[in-house]
Amino acid sequence: MRIRAAVLREMGRPAPYAESLPLEITDVELDEPGQGEMLLKIGAAGLCHSDLSVIDGSRPRPMPMVLGHEAAGTVAATGPGVERFGAGDRVVVAFVPACGDCRPCRQGRAALCEPGAAANAAGTLLSGAGRLHDAGGDPLHHHLGISAFADHAVVAAESAIGIPADLPFELAALFGCAVLTGVGAVVNAARITPDDQVAVFGLGGVGMSAILGARLAGAKTIIGVDAVASKLELAQRIGGVTTFAATDDVVDRVRAETGGGADCVIETVGSAEVLAQAYAATRRGGSTIAVGLPHPERMLTIPAVSLVAEERTLRGSYLGSSVPRRDIPRFIHHYREGQLPVQQLLTHRLALEDINDGFDRLARGEAVRQVVLF
Fold first, then answer.
1. Which strand (E) or helix (H) includes residue 215?
2. 302 CB contacts (<8 Å, ≥6 apart)?
3. Which of 13, 47, 138, 373 has the highest local Cβ count within 10 Å?
4. What would the pLDDT profile of 104-138 be if each residue is shown by its tens digit?
5. What is the fold, at CATH topology level, of the domain defined by 2-176+341-373?
């Protein structure tokens, strides 16, 4: 079938993207779903910094590619072997298609699924197949098994999680990445308790979700750090959050506010320098959780002795260390109970044709979460 999609043909075009137009809005061909796959009619797709990292080249992926990995939609058709879903079901997609059979999956670490990671790196679906083509027949790569910046997508059934019929797509999409990653980092990786003091460095969609997750966990102190004043203001409106601008003395300010450092500091920026700051702002015996994705060539330098002498923990968290089939439904439950106000993350709605402008807005730090509505 012919669909409308945003295609990235080369990485590294300069901003402003409204002028360089890295994402080409064009018609492409989408094959029917194969074994274990589904055709989705996309309802909404979020703009994430991970997409921007592919556009600017700091997160290399095979080109050309239909971008987008945070989305919700309706099952339009199923391929052979799909039993959990049928036409008309509403789903959100997670950006690691967990096979369920590899060693990490059997250990409850779906974010580290080995076949899923291999498929994502290759730009294919979980099966290794590609279903996207240019009008001339040349293959297009899938982004993280989803390619959501399109009115339709074929995904592995393992990428999808069912959602309630009354959950708006524009909010449901956020549970597939921003909420899953940010809240998951708090409850799965950091395991925040009500006695903990928590700081979050970086208040984009994932960082703000971590703020919501810390509030959900009942953290005693919550601190948000960012360079953009409007994001600090939004964190303050959420309530119960102390905010600091990301200035040269921010580590000292966090340590002073918490009496020697936060019990847990979560870094979402994807910067080795900011991660070093987050580590420095963590107290003795505390945990630093790295969530952002730096460029693969960047290195981190920390005082090695502190890991032992101060019993410090430095841990990575991908996909919020989540099991999407378990965590997305429970996070949606918390939202519906009023305990996780995800709607506060949504700052802009746009059409597919405006997506390059949206990435300019994201690059300038003027948005928390934007969604393309179909």
1. helix 205-216
2. 276, 279, 314
3. 47
4. 999 999 999 999 999 999 999 999 999 999 988 99
5. Quinone Oxidoreductase; Chain A, domain 1 (3.90.180)
